[in-house]
Amino acid sequence: MRTTEFETELHARLAAAEQAKEIEIALAVAKATQQTLKVNVAKDAEIQQLKSEVKSATTNQELAVAKAVAAAEKNLNEAKSMLSLQAAEQKVKDAAIKESHAKDLALKDELISRYKDMKAKLSVKHLGETLEQHCEIEFNRMRSLAFPNAQFGKDNDASAGTKGDYVFRDFSDDDVEYVSIMFEMKNESDATATRKKNSDFFAKLDKDRNDKGCEYAVLISMLEEDSELYTGITDVSHLYPKMFVVRPQFFLAIIALLRNATQDTIMVKAELEQIKKQNIDITDFEFELEDFKSAFGRNYDLAKRKFDAAIKDIDVAIERLQKVKEGLLGSENNLRLANDKATALTVKKLTKGNPTMAAKFAELDAAERSDAA
Predict the structure, then answer these.
(1) E-only strand ranges, the chain
(2) Number of H helices, E strands in the chain
(3) Counting beta carbons within 10 angstroms of the beta carbon of residue 249, is it exposed (0 to 12), middle (13 to 18) or buried (19 or more)?
(4) CA–CA–CA angle 68, 73, 74 (5° rounding)
(5) Measured between alpha carbons, how far is 116 from 228 in angstroms, rounded to an integer?
(6) Could you tell me whether strands 233-235 and 243-246 are parallel, antiparallel, or unpaired per DSSP bridges?
(7) ∠188-142-201 over CA atoms, to 5°?
(8) Torsion sign, CA atoms 97, 102, 108, 114
(9) Where is 146: in which H helix or E strand?
(10) pTM, whole model, 2 decimals?
(11) Coiled coil: which residue ranges (predicted)?
């Protein structure tokens, strides 16, 4: 009976325990399910938030891209507008350059035509006539009208080793020279087979200008007829000062140009000439004064050298006497020492350590005492 009751109770307890276990499991499952639901809800919310943020970021990015594209399009439009403007300006500049170039070509063609015409005329005029003669004739035609006070003639002074072709000098009404030109003429026929150039004559022309005291140098040349540089009046002062190369048709023009350029200096040169004449006496006086100063300076230098030599001799004598004085002072000191030694000498000191001499001096002393008694 007890065994049956025990088993019945045991089975009841086991059933209750099993039921309690199932309840706990059910609760645990419910709780886990609830936690899972919460986690899923939170994840869903987070996913929604992330989706919202991604959407917002995408929208912002699209706006930024739209702004960047708009700005780029604006810059592109501005650049296109600027390029169009520059293209238009360049077009205008090209048109102006073309027009200027066309004018230059027309002017050059005109100069070439004039030069060819002049050359043709010269080729006829120069039959039996040199370029020098042509220039001289052209000058003499205008001498009385344009150059009444001027001198124009051959340079015959070869003392400096070379000479130019012609020298032009013009003077004011007061006979003051205010412009001078050294001319060198080079004709095409003067050229050798090596075809000389204008620059081959620059150094000699500059030397002749300086040797003859001329202010300007001008080369009248028919050399290098095809050169684009020497077409009219060419300034070559960057190579040699105040030098020009001109074609024959500009011979009188260069004279007039240089003369007119220096006419403003006529008054200044006249005043300088007057001052120079007035200062002749002053110059002579200054020369005599400088001569006196030079002679006085020589005498002063001679006297100073003798004075310095005498001072040097006196210094040597003083130095010699100083040495003699030092020698005498040394002798005086030795004599004083000898006198001190002699004064300190006594009979006791002389007989000390010498019995014989002590006895002798004792006998001599006793004898003196007996005599005195």
Answers:
(1) 151-154, 166-171, 177-186, 216-221, 233-235, 243-246
(2) 8, 6
(3) middle
(4) 95
(5) 14
(6) antiparallel
(7) 30
(8) negative
(9) helix 131-146
(10) 0.42
(11) 40-89
Amino acid at 130: T
The β-bridge partners of 170 are 179
Measure the CA–CA gap between 234 and 245, rounded to whole angstroms: 5
**Backbone angle region of 133, left / alpha / beta, with phi > 0 → left and psi within -120 to 50 → alpha:** alpha
φ/ψ of 193, rounded to 5, equals -65, -20
The residue assigned the tokens 């006594």 is 346
Structural tokens at position 326: 């030092």
As given in the structure block, the two tokens for residue 253 are 């023009």
Secondary structure class of 340 (helix, strand, coil): helix
Task: Measure the CA–CA gap between 168 and 258, rounded to whole angstroms.
Answer: 11
pLDDT in tens, 320-333: 777 777 776 776 67
**Six token digits for residue 144:** 């009385």
CB atoms within 10 A of CB 205: 25
CB 218 within 8 A of CB 247: no
Task: Quote the CA–CA distance of 16 and 106 in Å, as a whole number.
Answer: 130
Whole-number Å distance between alpha carbons of 93 and 277: 61
Residue carrying the six token digits 């006793």: 366
Q: Please provide the DSSP assignment of 109-123 as one string.
A: HHHHHHHHHHHHHHH
Q: Are 181 and 218 in contact (CB under 8 A)?
A: yes
Let me know: does 183 contact 135? Beta carbons within 8 Å: yes
State the average pLDDT for the chain.
Answer: 78
pLDDT tens digits, 177-218: 889 999 999 886 544 556 788 999 999 999 999 999 999 999
CB 157 within 8 A of CB 209: no
Q: How far apart are CA 68 and CA 82, in angstroms?
A: 21
The residues pairing with 177 across neighbouring beta strands, listed in sequence order, are: 171
